[in-house]
Amino acid sequence: MESLLAEHERLSKSGTFSKSLDDIQKTIDLLVNVRDTIAADPEATSLNLAKLQTPVKSSLEDLHKDLEEVRKHQTKYAKLIDKKFKDKTLPQMDYEALSSQPALINRAIAMHLLREGQFSVASTFLTEATKNQSPEDMTNDLTMSGTDQDLGLDSLKSESLRKQFANMYHILHEMKNERNLLPAIEWAREKSDELEKRGSNLEFDLGKLQFVWLFVGKQLQSGRPNLFEGRRQALEYARQELCHFRPRYLKELQQLCGAMAFCPNLQQSPYRRVFLDNDAWDELASSFTKEFCALLGLSAESPLYIAATAGAIALPHFSKLQVIMKDKRTEWTTLHEIPVEVPLPPSYRFHSIFVCPVSKEQTTDQNPPMMMPCGHVVANESLERLSKGNRFKCPYCPNESHPRDAMRIYM
Description:
It is a single chain. By secondary structure, the chain is mainly alpha-helical. It contains 16 helices and 5 strands. It has helices at about 1-15, 20-40, 45-85, 100-115, 120-130, 135-140, 160-175, 180-190, 190-195, 200-220, 225-240, 245-260, 270-275, 280-295, 305-330, 380-385; strands at about 370, 375-380, 390-395, 400, 405-410. The strands form 2 sheets. The chain has a 3-stranded antiparallel beta sheet. β3 (about 390-395) and β4 (about 400) form a beta hairpin. α10 (about 200-220) packs antiparallel against α11. Residues about 140-150 have low confidence and may be disordered.
């Protein structure tokens, strides 16, 4: 990898067209001068053209040398890339989980485009995707668990959904680029009851950052720092807008007000982290996006992005597995499980797992965890093997029970 990085550095320095552009510009200037000379004295046209041949030829030769140097570096860099990243055949599978659900794939793509603010592209994609949609595909559209939103593509054509995402991007633009929290605060007030039901702190966090912005940020941005004026504006804002948060956030409000005693020297105060946090805006923007999508019944991250990233992480493991299976002449016989563990980052683990203490195997939808009346849990297949349809003793305590008394656990 070091040789590739070194060649990349070499290419970025010498493999540019700056010298070539200078030579081209010199040639253009020469031609313009000769044109003006001929226009001023047409009788000397032949003489001027004759004088032009040698410098133009020399200039073109210099240009060719420049391009040859660039081409040489690019060729060498391309060979190093091909050597480092060899072309490999992607793993092939006879079974594809989503091959019978094209509507779900199209929906994931369309939703990703909408979430990214690509509304015109999403509209074109939805039109093309639904143009030749069969009745069978339309009846296969499922309902999103936990919400009343339809998973069909028609639901994504809603103008209301597009307006909501447009509003989200407008608020994020104001927050990140203009340091304007007022649109976000107004939205949080409208959704106050729903946010409170979710146990969200977003509304208070927005008001808190607005207080901090009035106290120090606005003054610094104006180029005329005046902490005493900022303190006055922040205190007035707190009296008008933050009083109703007192029952729930009294300690945080006390910290904000306590910082006023350190107004001339916030750098050395105990509240430095609250008032001089460079990441506060990005963190709050991320929190806002999460809550906004949650109220729409959506995840904070795009499912398509998560699936593609997880697939990219898993691909090298599957490629290696395919080579091993080919060498040992074995087959992947399990449809709903992967034969190797894929190390995904913690943020990509969305479901709890249970490994049966008897069989040492991870439970699945076909082999779910079952809790016996005594409270111990085993996989369904282990339960059937232990009981054989009759009363049996729990493998971990003296209690006896019947398989019909066991309850399935949903994870």
